Amino acid sequence: MQNLDIISINIWQVVISLANLVILFLILKKFLFEPVKKIKAQRENEIETQYKKAEKARKEADDLKAGWEDKITTADQKADEIISEAVDRANERNEIMLYESREKADQIIRKAKADIERDRREARETIKKEIVDVSQVISEQIIGREINMDDHRDLIDDAIDKLGETK
Questions:
Q1: How confident is the model at residue 1 (pLDDT cuts 50, 70, 90)?
Q2: Neighbours of 40 (CB within 10 A)
Q3: 4-36 burial string, b = 16+ CB within 10 Å, else e?
Q4: Which of 17, 47, 41, 25 is CA-nearest to residue 123?
Q5: Which one of 18, 76, 86, 139 is CB 3.0 to 4.6 Å from 50, fit for a cystine?
Q6: Can you state the angle between helices 149-166 and 69-143, rounded to 10 degrees?
Q7: How much is the pTM?
Q8: 9-23, 53-67, 140-154: the lowest-pLDDT one
Q9: DSSP secondary-structure letter at 144?
């Protein structure tokens, strides 16, 4: 009955792992998603302000159209150039920021996956060592003699490999 306690799932470890996951999500939300949203909103406000300024310039030019036909044509061309440059710069900045944000998120995800894989390997090794120790004691009790640790580990490794292949 005691052997089942060693192999059973520890609910506290599961709870702690879930808590770590929630904390990681909250940290990402706080330090990654919210700043990106703020930057995006700020960028949209800047673009909207530039569009409003350009529209205002266009209306003023239309009011003066009667007497200043040549000047209005030049002003329209200039306003279009400013709008085009502003849109190009804003799109360029937006693309750069999105790329950087994606790179940071990908880097965080890769690191988290590597950490999870490392933890998984460490847990497997720990469990394997515990199984070897417990099974050696049980084997010694069953056989009634002491087993060489290297021989015992070889037997356990073979058994674990066979169990892994069957699963």
A1: very low
A2: 14
A3: eeeeeeeeeeeeeeeeeeeeeeeebeeeeeeeb
A4: 17
A5: 86
A6: 130
A7: 0.35
A8: 140-154
A9: S
